[in-house]
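Much of our argument rests on the idea that a fold can be written as discrete symbols. The amino acid sequence and the backbone structure tokens for this protein are reproduced below:

___
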Amino acid sequence: MGRLENRVALVTGASRGIGAAAAEAFAREGASVVINTFPDERMDAMASEVVGRICDAGGSAIKVAADVSEPKDVDRLVDRAQSEFGDIDILVANAAYSRRCAWHEISVEQWDQTMAVNLRGTFLCAKAVYPGMLRKERGSIITVTSVTVDLGMAGSLDYVSSKAGIIGLTRALAREVGPDGIRVNSVMPGAIRTEMEEELETMDEADLAALMAERQSLPQRGYAQDLAGTFVYLASDDSAFVTGQVVAVDGGWINH
């Protein structure tokens, strides 16, 4: 039996990148997985591929398109998950929005969009799965922050602010739901080569890889699969006494 046998996991933003890697790792450990994707034709197609890989390997997964910044969409997402698999044991709030520009060029609309997806979306999803976790008297909520919070990276003021807020949410929520048997932790990825990074990064990949090799303790490029084990650890009973923590997976870029 896997470490997540007979458990239900919901992973938002799981059509690609880190979310997809976490979802597939959960399935390999025996969890039934709900793959959330943004309601977009391209993202939906990629989510279908993730579900296909899981099912072809003998796992159990469905996809549900939903905008995590919209309360009605989140409620519908969780309702569908529960009707298919039962109450959710594991939530990975991974869905994120990012657009790089100078801070004084950020419009109010862009600021609100970033906060709505990254921070409000995390809150809405946690709130929606909470009643089911209460019924089970257990649960693991895993948020996703960013190494940019510690770096104070320029060109992403709204994104960095939202990811800093997620750390505060994680710590405060861990205090609130600990007595209910629910744990809340955050994964802090470093420079991970994902589709989102490819879309946002202007530096040549070879140059970026060389730069990260200089900055990190481990002189190698990080990929989505490098985070999968951390998500499994935080989702499973291996971390039964761990809550309110931020776990950096960055090749030793930022040392605490």
About this structure: Residues 108-136 form the longest helix (29 residues).
